[in-house]
Amino acid sequence: MSPAVATxxxxxxxxxxxxxxxxxxxxxxxxxxxxxxxxxxxxxAVVVATDDGSSHWYVRSIAMAAVRSGIDCExxxxxxxxxxxxxxxxxxxxxxxxxxxGIILQTPLPSGVAQQDLTSEIDPVKDVDGANPVSLGRLAAxxxxxxxxxxxxxxxxxxxYEVELAGRQAVIVGRSTVVGVPVAHLLLARHSTVTVCHxxxxxxxxxTRRADVLVVAAGRAGLITAEHLSSGTTVIDVGTNPTDxxxxxxxxxxAEAWPVVDALTPVPGGVxxxxxALLLAHTVEAAQAAVRxxxx
Length: 296
Hints:
The structure is a single chain. The chain is of the alpha/beta class. It folds into two domains: 39-126, 3-Layer(aba) Sandwich (Rossmann fold), CATH 3.40.50; 149-272, NAD(P)-binding Rossmann-like Domain (Rossmann fold), CATH 3.40.50. Helices cover 38% and strands 14% of the residues. It contains nine helices and eleven strands. A six-stranded parallel β-sheet has the order 1-11-8-7-5-6. Strands 3-2-4 form a three-stranded parallel β-sheet, sandwiched between helices. β2, α2 (53-68) and β3 (72-77) form a beta-alpha-beta unit. α1 (18-37) runs parallel beside α9, α2 (53-68) packs across α9 (271-295) and α5 (149-160) packs across α6.
């Protein structure tokens, strides 16, 4: 497996996302400058309707990353008691605003408001986090669409470290439409043999131990331990679970994984930085596509 990188406490390879994110940020900045030269300011809108602290922290991190790349970022904070009608109307308005190139609906949403009832209001050409059912359907059909950024980040990391996918056993733990399901479609498109596990999977370890590539996106800190792992496995840990000391922990028990697996993403510093950079990359691509449509 290459390129050679630092290792963890054992001989496991550390699959850092920092260099990948830096490369994406550089590309974003170059394209933003080119668009500015023709009078186009790239703009991302993030709709927020929560008082969740970690969610607000994440949105601020997106905004700061956008500014560093020269992208305008409008945070539309509707408040934690926003109604579905208000959120829907906001998404409709932003979809019709030609100055906005990308739209994200941040979760969690207020109690009683279902995300799946709202995401269809995001214009698919501005759906930079692949939330609209149309985007997900196009992804499943192998058609052009923005995949959810976290799901695409998994593939970006695997490609960067030249992990073989064709013909390999890929096991995914988690079946959300944000990560698990779209990752399954992306891996199938790369000719992997894919197994999707979830909370009702019997004998989870039986499935995970046979994985060549294991993607864990269950949202449960330390769910995957040594008993679930085998030597030679490449593990992508998507988990970002807050800890009591203000840090983050993955879904994989890292201390138990390092002595066993072949490679593992760190938390933080693995999937997260790549996800943020991809959200902005999708916004830049959406702005380029808007320019092409206007010119045609």
